[in-house]
Structures are given as C-alpha cells and as structure tokens.
Amino acid sequence: YAPWCPACQQIELTWESFAKESEHLDITVGKVDVTQEPGLSGRFFVTTLPTIYHANDGVFRRYRGSRTLEDLQGYVLERKWEAVEPVAGWKSPSSITMHGMAGLFHLSGWIRQIHSYLTGTLGIHVWISYALFILATLLIGLFLGL
C-alpha cells in the first residue's frame, strides 16, 4: 500500500479488521508501505495498489478477489488459495530475478536522494544534476565495456 493511494485508504479499515481476526485464522497479516520499502515493491513486482499476496511455505499467490472482510476470511478459511495459480518461478519474490528487480528499485531511490542532495542542499541547477548523471552513466558504461 501507499499512504497517498485512495484505493489503499478505502480498504484500510477492512484490512485492519482482517489483521485483528488473523489470530483466529492461524495466519499472519501485514502491510508494507511501498514508499518506505521500494525494494519489496520491486521484489513483488507491484504494479497496482493495493496489491495483496498470500504466502504459504514459500509459495506466493496474488489475491485478486473481492476486498470485503468476509471474502478475505473465506479465502483463507475455505482454502480458496489452493485453486489460485502460484506466481511463476521467475516472478516469485524469492527468485534471483526479483532480487535483481529489488536492487534496481533501491538504486532508483539512491539516485533520487543524490539528485535531491545536489539540487536542494548544494543548490546545483536541475539540468546540471542531469548532466552529471548522464556523464556518470557514460563513464560507468565505458568502464564496464572495457
């Protein structure tokens, strides 16, 4: 979820109720703010918000059902998750591909922080910051090409 997301705000009370019922369902319920954890956003290939996953014994399934408390509980109690196709091996959050994706999301966060530091703290013009990133990209590419 993200705090600014209207759909996430809409489901928040239902999700909190579901989390309170989790002890009776013998499950753990959590939520992750993708603005605070961009690596997890990349690892789980989050493209829409909110995104709900069911994980059991290292097998991940994306929940796409109704977002009412009754439907969420039914998904677990009636074991409806067994009929849902698991996330493909290469897209699984534990795969090496998604570890790489998480790394790219972390890298983008660092780039944003560096850009903010250059423009905000040091007062460098935005276009100069862009030029520095272009130069760095070219130099890294040349170095890797050697």
TrEMBL record:
Transmembrane segments: 122-144
InterPro entries: Thioredoxin-like_sf, Thioredoxin_domain, TMX_domain-containing
Residue intervals of the Thioredoxin domain: 1-76
Superkingdom of the source species: Eukaryota
Keyword Signal in annotation: yes
GO molecular function terms noted in the UniProt entry: disulfide oxidoreductase activity
Membrane topology term: Single-pass membrane protein
A Pfam family recorded for this sequence: Thioredoxin
Ribonucleoprotein recorded as keyword: no
Subcellular location per the Swiss-Prot or TrEMBL entry: Endoplasmic reticulum membrane
Keyword terms: Disulfide bond, Electron transport, Endoplasmic reticulum, Membrane, Redox-active center, Signal, Transmembrane, Transmembrane helix, Transport
GO cellular component, as recorded: endoplasmic reticulum membrane
UniProt-listed PANTHER family: DUMPY: SHORTER THAN WILD-TYPE (PTHR46107), THIOREDOXIN-RELATED TRANSMEMBRANE PROTEIN 4 (PTHR46107:SF1)
Protein name in UniProt: Thioredoxin-related transmembrane protein 4
Species the sequence originates in: Eudyptes sclateri
Record lineage: Eukaryota, Metazoa, Chordata, Craniata, Vertebrata
Gene giving rise to this polypeptide: Tmx4
